Structures are given as structure tokens and as C-alpha cells.
């Protein structure tokens, strides 16, 4: 049985409004990563994401990390990174998911992938490894991208694929529809 999502709560918010509320730039492409202890729990894949980000071909990017504060020695990805810390309410999460072009869930171990389904409910495509419970959530090149398991170079290719997609609006719609169809509480 899948984890249900309250799609009346987790639903898209206008991107410009979301970014204004979070004080994020309107003219950047927001890549989102987050989990409980996002940068400290090796199972969440921050090390793999850190290897993938410098490989991106896309430009005009900013990374937003939630679930962890700024590390003592934060990596330099060549573009701004915002560490939002722990978000304690679903409204903040909904606004954050809606602000991003792509949510990256590079988990090495994941029973389901709640952040992926929540992001997709808000219309945000997801890039993940083609492993773990995320296989039940992300449909490759339909509502996100499934990278070769634990390959940072393919994770980067997936992020680039989403960011360069001419049909980004269709990916967003497909993401929302998948959650409505299969995970709506």
C-alpha cells in the first residue's frame, strides 16, 4: 500500500508567488534537495548529488537544500546554495516544492520517497536513481527522470534533461496527475 498524500494540501502554488514568499530569485532555475538530516545522512545521497552538480550543463541555477542547516564546510558548486534548515509545516513545504523547477531525490536507500511524491503533487518533476521505492513514484521521462543507480553523471544528465525540457509544463502536469491517480489519500 502506498503512502497517501493529501492532494488538497500538497498542490501547486504559482511559482512567482512561492519564490517571493521564500525570498528566492525569480530569474534563476531552482534545483531542490531535501530530507530529514539531508546533508548528514549518507542514505539520502547528498554525496552523490554533490558530485553531480558540478557536471551540470545547465546554467543560471541555484540550489535550495531543506532538512539541514548549512554544513561547517559547505561545498562550492559554482552557483549559489541556500540552506533552509528544517521546515516544520506542510504549508512551507508546499510553497518550497512549487518554487522549484526540479526536485532531486538521490537516495541510496528509500522505502517510499515521501518528498518525491509531495513535490510531484505540487507539480514539480523529480530526478532520482532508478532504485529503491522511488521506482514506484517516478516514471522515466514522463514526470521526472530515473538515473542509473548511484551514477552521479547520470543524475546530472537527469537534472539537465528536466531543466532543458521544452515540455516542462507537461512534465509538471504529469507529475501532479500521477500523484492524484495513485497516491491521493
Care to describe what's here?
The chain is of the alpha/beta class and 185 residues long. It is built from six helices and six strands; from the N terminus they run H-E-H-E-E-H-E-H-E-E-H-H. It has helices spanning 15-22, 46-52, 90-99, 114-121, 152-164, 168-182, and strands spanning 29-34, 61-66, 81-83, 102-105, 126-129, 144-147. The protein has a six-stranded parallel β-sheet with strand order 3-2-1-4-5-6, sandwiched between helices. The chain starts with 14 loop residues before the first helix and ends with a helix. The model has no long low-confidence stretch (mean pLDDT 95).
Secondary-structure topology with pairs:
Blueprint: H1 15-22, E1 29-34, H2 46-52, E2 61-66, E3 81-83, H3 90-99, E4 102-105, H4 114-121, E5 126-129, E6 144-147, H5 152-164, H6 168-182
Parallel strand pairs: 1-2, 1-4, 2-3, 4-5, 5-6
Helix pairs in contact: 1-3, 2-5, 4-6
How would you sum up this structure in a few lines?
This protein has 185 residues and is an alpha/beta fold. It starts with 14 loop residues before the first helix and ends with a helix.
Question: Which of globular, elongated, flat, extended, rod-shaped describes the shape?
Answer: globular
Strand order of the largest sheet: 3-2-1-4-5-6
Per DSSP E runs of 2 or more residues, the count of β-strands stands at 6
- Give average pLDDT, whole number: 95
Count of helix runs:
6
Low-confidence stretches: none
Radius of gyration: 15 Å
Helix content: 25-40%
Strand content: 5-15%
Which structural class do you get from the secondary structure elements? alpha/beta
Distance between the termini: 11 Å
Main β sheet profile: 6 strands, parallel
Helices and strands, in order, run as: HEHEEHEHEEHH
